[in-house]
Amino acid sequence: MKLIFSLVLIVLYTINIVLSSQQTYPCPFYRSLSLTNPPMNGDDIYILQSLLTRTTGLENLSLTSNFDQDTQMALAKFQSLNNVGTTSGTLDVNTANLILELNSEDGYVDNGQIPSGFLYKVHVPVYKNRSIETIATLYDSNLNVLLTFPVRTHGQNDNVTGLAENEFCEDGSTPTGLMTFDLNSPEPDPISFGPYPINRAVQGITGNAAIVISNIRDGILMHTGEWPDWTPSQPMPNSHGCVHGHPSDIDQVQTILSTQLNVAIRQNTYGAMPYTHQPQGILSIELID
Ligand SMILES: *[C@@H]1O[C@H](CO)[C@@H](O)[C@H](O)[C@H]1NC(C)=O
Ligand SMILES: *[C@@H]1O[C@H](CO)[C@@H](O)[C@H](O)[C@H]1NC(C)=O
Ligand SMILES: *[C@@H]1O[C@H](CO)[C@@H](O)[C@H](O)[C@H]1NC(C)=O
């Protein structure tokens, strides 16, 4: 009797695992989205609407953060164009996976310039495989190269799939695009963030950064750390969306900014919104493969 009971439990547990893995939405999505009255609302819907506008013919969809009738129609159109197997206009797991696969890339290309009014620019090329470290460049406002240094923009991995979380997830890869950037005093935790002033991504201007920074993802920084057991000959660790650099380089960046370019070290806002300082720099993150 006891044995049968245990077997039944094991079978039920297995069914539950299989069902729940099939039902798992890829972040930033976590729920079925459909037209309701009153409408569903949230950041996931804002991201969905933003991604839908990348499909030809859906460019004018309004970014309301509400799952309204226009969103249902746009989603149904996306489903029919891509043969999802339904044209219900409801976001299910398959549609969520497909829209992330097809519409996540922003096509952002660095224009080799710096918008007027900014004292510096950091350019970061990235590969789809964020485990590959790349060389960032620090420029002054006349686009003179002041420093080149290795960086890593890999966020957290998904616990279940083991794959890198995408740019729209809370702790995923650093988003691509153009964004304002500012020098802030050090974070209080030198183990995780290093002892030096950090640079904070403040406001996305174009690309994926414009969708999520900082209305949805805040605390995207460029920093280092006193990472346990790490030496500069090793790859840098995964971040929670930040740009990681070596301690000597992050120190040099803040030294160049504050002593050569007269960039002020602003009191760290620790992500409080709205950002209270005028950003002094620009961060440009560009996919190169
Ligand atoms: C989007 O809006 C623009 C400007 O109003 C208009 O010219 C264009 O035809 C619209 N596109 C679609 C697909 O509706
Ligand atoms: C991504 O890059 C890392 C570091 O170069 C490499 O070890 C890994 O195999 C790559 N992953 C894929 C899927 O290519
Ligand atoms: C993933 O793992 C981390 C660290 O172990 C844990 O804090 C987090 O809650 C896990 N997330 C999920 C969705 O299981």
TrEMBL record:
<keyword id="KW-0133">Cell shape</keyword>
<keyword id="KW-0961">Cell wall biogenesis/degradation</keyword>
<dbReference type="GO" id="GO:0008360">
    <property type="term" value="P:regulation of cell shape"/>
</dbReference>
<dbReference type="Pfam" id="PF03734">
    <property type="entry name" value="YkuD"/>
</dbReference>
<dbReference type="GO" id="GO:0071555">
    <property type="term" value="P:cell wall organization"/>
</dbReference>
<dbReference type="InterPro" id="IPR005490">
    <property type="entry name" value="LD_TPept_cat_dom"/>
</dbReference>
<protein>
    <recommendedName>
        <fullName>L,D-TPase catalytic domain-containing protein</fullName>
    </recommendedName>
</protein>
<comment type="pathway">
    <text>Cell wall biogenesis; peptidoglycan biosynthesis.</text>
</comment>
<keyword id="KW-0808">Transferase</keyword>
<feature type="signal peptide">
    <location>
        <begin position="1"/>
        <end position="20"/>
    </location>
</feature>
<keyword id="KW-0732">Signal</keyword>
<feature type="domain" description="L,D-TPase catalytic">
    <location>
        <begin position="147"/>
        <end position="257"/>
    </location>
</feature>
<dbReference type="InterPro" id="IPR038063">
    <property type="entry name" value="Transpep_catalytic_dom"/>
</dbReference>
<keyword id="KW-0573">Peptidoglycan synthesis</keyword>
<dbReference type="GO" id="GO:0016740">
    <property type="term" value="F:transferase activity"/>
</dbReference>
<dbReference type="InterPro" id="IPR036365">
    <property type="entry name" value="PGBD-like_sf"/>
</dbReference>
